Structures are given as structure tokens and as C-alpha cells.
Fold:
Amino acid sequence: MAWCMQDKESSWLKIVEQIKTCTLCPLHKYRRNPVPGEGSLNAEIFFLGEAPGRREDEMGRPFVGAAGQLLNKLLEDINIKRSEVFITNVVKCRPPNNRDPKDDEIRACSVYTDSLISLIRPKVIVTLGNHAGRYIFEFLGNRRWLGISKIRGKVYEVNLRLDLRVKVIPTYHPAAALYNPQLREALESDFKLIVKALSEVRGEGRRPTLLNFIKH
Ligand code: SF4
Structure:
């Protein structure tokens, strides 16, 4: 479906309004601010994380704490501006004491996650951590999720049940890599795959058609 920018903005604002008043799962009881996500509505790259933390809950923005600083640095290293990408989480409200989000919470919040993916229609989805990877692989992609350490390090072509085929790069959550140099190295290497995947999808878009040959 082709969206004009005005339609996209108004759909985005509607989704934000719904999230602000959402009570679909118990996490609404603990939030100070919901965190719908942020970034470009025309982003080619969509980052899907796990859940807002304390700082995110205070500010209503994703990835603004220490893990966010690392995400910014990883993006800077591959020359991608944070404003060019879109970032959200599988749940939009902070779980108490930063516990993992539960399956029923992730499912309840999927109405927004799926709407955001359908609105933005990214070319590449980067999943940060096990919950996000499993969501894209199993819930949306009908593929088996074998755990982040087995699956990371590759680009996957996945048909999402949102009428969308995307390249998926599963990697660790930056929070896990903050004090673990090995995971940080793995993250850095996985971020290089983003550049590769992006140049492939852009190249695919420019593949010559029969019309190009006739014109010459
Ligand atoms: S986490 Fe998602 S489903 Fe749960 S209350 Fe927040 S917005 Fe609603």
C-alpha cells in the first residue's frame, strides 16, 4: 500500500494516541509514560527492542539510557543517523523492576508493533535481544527461533504475515553488551551486516528491467 506523508503522519499520531491510553495489558498500571517509538516514518531500517527501562519510562522515548548511548555509537560507526531509522520495542510500557516482558504482554502490544511495521514498511528489521527476535521470527515470520546466540551473525529473508518481505538481522540487546566485550564485538559485527543488507536492497531496487535495455 502506498502512503502519502500526510496519511503516514496522521496514522502515526493515531497510533500514539491509542498507546497513550492503552490498557490492553497489565503493564499500563506501572508506566509513567508509554514509549511508542521514534524516528523516521520513511525509515528503511526498523529497530525492535525489548521494553522501555527506567529512563525511557521517565522520558517517553526509546533507548535514551546507557543502552541507548551504545546504540547511538553503533549507528555512528556505520554512518547511519539515528534520525534516519525507526526504533521501538515489543512492549511500549515499562515492566516493573525491568523484568522481561511476558508473552501475553508482547501479544497484547503486537497490535501496535504490527501497525508500526505496516506503516513504515521497512526494508531491514534489526531485532535487539531474544524477545524481539522471537517476535519477528515466530509470531510474524512463521519460522523457528533457536535463541539469539545460535541465530545471530546472518541476514535472513523473512516473509512477515503483514504482506511484507524484509531482511532481518537478529542481534543482542545493547544492554547485554554494556559490560561484556564479547557481546559488544558481536554487536559491532552484526551492525556491519546492516550496511550490507541495505546496499543489497537498494541495489535490488535499481536492478535493470527489460525497459532499461529497450531504452538504450
Ligand atoms: S505494553 Fe502495550 S499493550 Fe500493554 S498497556 Fe502498554 S501499550 Fe498497551
Remarks:
- Residues 19, 22-25, 27-28, 34, 91-93, 105, 108-109 surround iron/sulfur cluster (CB under 6 Å).
- The chain has one domain: 7-199.
- The first helix runs from residue 5 to 20.
- The first strand starts at residue 38 and ends at 39.
